[in-house]
Amino acid sequence: MTEQIPITVLIVDDHPIVRQGMETLLAMQEGITVAGSVEHGAAAVGFIQEQLADVVLMDLNMPELGGIEATRQIRTLSPHTQIVVLTSYHEDAMVFPAIKAGALSYLLKSATPDEVVAAVRAASRREARLHPRIAQRLMSEVAGVQPSLNALTSRELEVLKEIARGKDNQTIAAELNLSAKTVKTHVSNILSKLYLADRTQAAVYALRQRIVPLDEEG
Q: What is the pTM of this model?
């Protein structure tokens, strides 16, 4: 097993239940240490002034000091520290200012525990993780780039065609002579590259792009 690089995390959220849940989740992960847990942005800035953390898991709407301004101050104090936003807000009025303030990743609180852990590990490597809805808006509104089938490998395109035909991972694996784990990886890559949230969106996208005739669906 590959040894995990040690990561220290500061949790910032005004809801005690959320903080407790994140502490429990992260404490279970190899190589991750919860350096602290605070209830608002001002406390987070104060923490970073006294003790560094590799990653800050940051809520946005909090008393004392909100997550956007706290992100800006922390990034100024400690450029090494990476910010992973974890919030319920997906509106442009929150998303774009948070990214501009220096947040590396932006997740919604509907994210799975595995997605949160993956985002923390990625942040320690300076790699961004964005909720698909957020990524799509950023690409279209900021960069003006639209999702393209050209981003997919030939194998990923084959898997996408089978998704559009309504087939599950086990069936796709058998038909393409792949392991189910490999198919799952391909599906994850497809969703990420096309900025889609789930298989249903992928199927609709494929049909709209006419890579599978409509009469083949299902």
A: 0.63
